[in-house]
């Protein structure tokens, strides 16, 4: 049954402002039906993981007494050149509002005017307000999201499921299988599907590499006034949309949350029009990675040529010999390698296996990161990631679990924090860029991060890897043109 935005907004208000009894009075207003949770863990495996997470949370009474915000930015580092150290903020405090703007996203925090900054002081469990001047505030942050605290204060409570739902909400980011199993048991005990099951279901499904299921959960969330709800991170909704080719949703989120997303709504409207034109030309019945499995793969790496002396003489020949290549770049320095193809191609499949580890823990001029991209020869020589910003597909893996995505040969950028992405020098990551027709995918460790519209015409392509303040071992790198089988 189709529901209006107003009715869905009413559901959210009821859920977050009234008791469980109020929610129970209108169960039919949650639409569409949510996907089913699965029992991913059983027996001792489930019990041991459940106890491990539960032991980190403290008592229900202590959690209920917390004044910690649900959404915000947790301070991970105080910088000497900023204002916040003098104002008394400390590592672990959570900034949740700057002026009239809730602080959702990782950004270079500056104040352009004198205004109030609202934060939660962790050591005192109290919310405070300070006045900041124009200029650099001086901190580094990671996103803070505590759906467990939101549920404790606003969700349906019952001894039959309280402990289970507490773990289900707390584990949805870092332990998706545990979270899904806990939700399975909570619903079996009678918990009603609601905004909390939808939000956690979307997050855990993304982290399991099931973007379509994540989209089905996200569709159960109210689409309007999420800003007022202060429950669901806008970045989660954008990640879901980006992984599912939901261009209209991405445009609407960019418009609804100015400053949170760097890709403006005008760029997204161009992609919507591009995708519509491509649909008139051909009907893609599957994702690019699925279509690639049915196509002939022609190895292009032997015909590639390096774009710089080192790339051409050392780096690329090692890849062509299928040897591992180590790029070790000290802090405050950057290294760029690139190679190109001699002829235009339309459909490509690039796969890379690598490990990465930041060098040192000190703050540096350049962010410690690995950037991978393929882009058109028309963009000029790739001398830095500013040029790579107009890549067909771009993936940056950064220190402290940050991931950045660019796409569509346009100035697009989306950055998010994922504690499951490890850059420890041991974890092998598998990166895959696939372009077929007017669509392309970015996959990391088998999980789709982006399914997006791209210009479909055959293009002379080049491929680039930039390393800054990291040791990266490229264990393998392949590039194939995808051709229709006769």
State the helicity in percent bands: 25-40%
The domain tally reads 3
Shape: globular
CATH architecture of the largest domain: Sandwich
Task: Describe the main β-sheet briefly.
Answer: 7 strands, antiparallel
Q: Whole-number radius of gyration?
A: 24 Å
How much of the sequence is in beta strands? 25-35%
What is the overall pLDDT average? 85
CATH superfamily of the largest domain: Exo-inulinase, domain 1
Q: Indicate the CATH topology of the largest domain.
A: Jelly Rolls
Q: Point out poorly predicted stretches.
A: 1-30
Query: Roughly how many Å apart are the termini?
Result: 45 Å
Number of strands: 22
Strand-pairing-aware structural class: alpha+beta
CATH class of the largest domain: Mainly Beta
Number of helices: 17
């Amino acid at each position: 049954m189709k529901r209006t935005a107003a009715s869905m907004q009413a559901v959210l208000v009821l859920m977050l402002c009234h008791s469980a009894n109020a929610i129970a009075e209108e169960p039919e207003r949650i639409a569409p039906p949510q996907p089913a949770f699965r029992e991913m863990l059983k027996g001792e495996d489930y019990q041991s993981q459940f106890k491990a997470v539960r032991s980190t949370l403290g008592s229900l009474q202590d959690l209920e007494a917390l004044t910690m915000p649900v959404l915000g930015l947790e301070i991970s580092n105080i910088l000497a050149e900023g204002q916040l150290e003098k104002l008394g903020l400390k590592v672990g405090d959570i900034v949740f509002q700057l002026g009239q703007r809730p602080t959702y996203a990782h950004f270079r925090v500056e104040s352009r005017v004198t205004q109030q900054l609202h934060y939660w002081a962790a050591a005192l469990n109290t919310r405070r307000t300070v006045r900041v001047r124009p200029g650099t505030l001086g901190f580094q942050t990671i996103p803070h999201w505590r759906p467990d605290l939101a549920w404790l204060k606003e969700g349906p409570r019952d001894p039959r499921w309280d402990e289970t739902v507490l773990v289900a909400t707390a584990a949805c980011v870092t332990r998706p299988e545990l979270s899904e199993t806990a939700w399975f048991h909570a619903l079996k005990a009678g918990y009603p599907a609601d905004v909390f099951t939808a939000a956690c279901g979307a997050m855990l499904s993304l982290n399991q590499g099931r973007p379509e299921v994540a989209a089905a959960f996200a569709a159960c969330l109210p689409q309007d006034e999420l800003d007022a709800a202060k429950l669901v991170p806008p970045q989660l909704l954008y990640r879901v949309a980006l992984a599912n080719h939901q261009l209209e949703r991405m445009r609407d989120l960019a418009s609804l949350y100015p400053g949170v997303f760097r890709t403006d709504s005008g760029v997204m409207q161009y992609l919507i029009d591009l995708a519509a034109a491509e649909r008139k030309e051909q009907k893609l019945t599957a994702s690019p990675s699925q279509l690639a499995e049915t196509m002939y793969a022609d190895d292009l790496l032997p015909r590639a040529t390096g774009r710089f002396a080192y790339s051409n003489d050392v780096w690329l020949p090692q890849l062509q010999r299928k040897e591992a290549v180590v790029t070790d770049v000290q802090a405050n320095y950057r290294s760029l390698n690139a190679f190109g193809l001699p002829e235009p191609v339309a459909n490509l499949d690039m796969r890379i296996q690598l490990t990465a580890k930041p060098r040192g823990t000190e703050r540096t001029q350049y962010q410690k990161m690995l950037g991978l991209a393929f882009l058109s020869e028309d963009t000029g020589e790739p001398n830095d990631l500013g040029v790579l910003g107009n890549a067909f597909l771009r993936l940056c893996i950064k220190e402290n679990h940050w991931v950045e995505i660019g796409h569509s040969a346009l100035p697009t950028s989306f950055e998010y924090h994922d504690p499951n992405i490890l850059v420890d020098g041991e974890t092998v990551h598998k990166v895959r860029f696939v372009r077929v027709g007017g669509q392309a995918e970015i996959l990391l460790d088998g999980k789709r991060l982006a399914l997006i519209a791209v210009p479909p015409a055959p293009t002379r392509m080049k491929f680039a890897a930039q390393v800054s303040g990291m040791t990266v071992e490229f264990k393998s790198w392949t590039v194939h043109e995808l051709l229709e089988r006769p």
